[in-house]
TrEMBL record:
Belongs to the OMP decarboxylase family. Type 2 subfamily. The lineage of its organism: Bacteria, Bacillati, Actinomycetota, Actinomycetes, Pseudonocardiales. It is an enzyme of class 4 (lyase). Keywords: Decarboxylase, Lyase, Pyrimidine biosynthesis. The gene is pyrF. This is Orotidine 5'-phosphate decarboxylase. It comes from the Bacteria. Its EC number is 4.1.1.23. It comes from Actinomycetospora chibensis.
Amino acid sequence: MSQGPVGRAPFRHRLREAVAAHGPLCVGIDPHPGLLTAWGLDADAAGVERFSRGVVEALAGHVALLKPQVALYEVYGAAGLAALERTLADAREAGVLTVADAKRGDIGSTMAGYARAWLADDAPLAADALTLSPYLGVGSLAPALDLAVATGRGVFVLARTSNPEAAGVQAAQARVAGSCGSDTPGGGRRMREVAQSVIDALAEHNAAHRDGPGDGSAGAVVGLTRGTTGRDHGLDLSALDGPVLVPGLGAQGGTPADVAAAFGATDALGGGTGPVVPVSAREVLTAGPDLGALRAAVGALNGSLTG
Ligand SMILES: O=c1ccn([C@@H]2O[C@H](COP(=O)(O)O)[C@@H](O)[C@H]2O)c(=O)[nH]1
């Protein structure tokens, strides 16, 4: 595996290796109050910390990717963020990859702050990857995309989310410029779904960094459960050449069969796109608080995603 300038292989390469070792599942660390209670913990920052660090302890070496949901730590203010900081540090030390699900997106100058907060080597909250919202334009995310390239990290940009309300914006047809605002065939203005225009902009970014330290650093979020006509996401992902995060498994109704129907084999979308990493949080976390039981549930779910 090639090393980037910071002595770290590109995030997509590290994710591929982790998926090959443990299976494609990403476990969401979502410390909802009901789950904390079910685990015999108080719904406070201390409970969130015990829950989250327990998940890391149970699953490090058994899962490819962990995805803490930042909102559920922010609920408890500074103490919640301190719990998240320690959870990310545990994961780093245990060698399990993380994606901070913060869904950040702002004008470029502010975006630089968000990028440093989550993707800089010396950031207290540094994760291996970060989720981003492109509502201010994919181009506004450049500080995070650039820092991910520079530090061997990754981003997952919301393209087609799993919630039913998403279609109004994401499925709208728009004449959208490419990430460079050009009228060229690569980034040209043509009618396409907003979600597809996000994918196309990420593909452009990945093409510019192919085989370099930022190889495949721009990933997409393509949810599993949106729509009423089956699970087909309807997007052309073949040129993305980056990883795909697929939330919606379990509590939102998605099944391993839906993953297979929508994405085929989880690393076979053509053009190098992948790996495809389905996410389950609430459902799989109900297997705790027994850490062995949680590990077994994750193993079984990984088995049904690959079997
Ligand atoms: O389109 C999206 C983007 C992100 N999410 C997040 O994933 C988890 C899913 O949790 P479950 O308990 O498995 O439903 C959660 O943190 C969401 O904010 C998503 O669901 N859909």
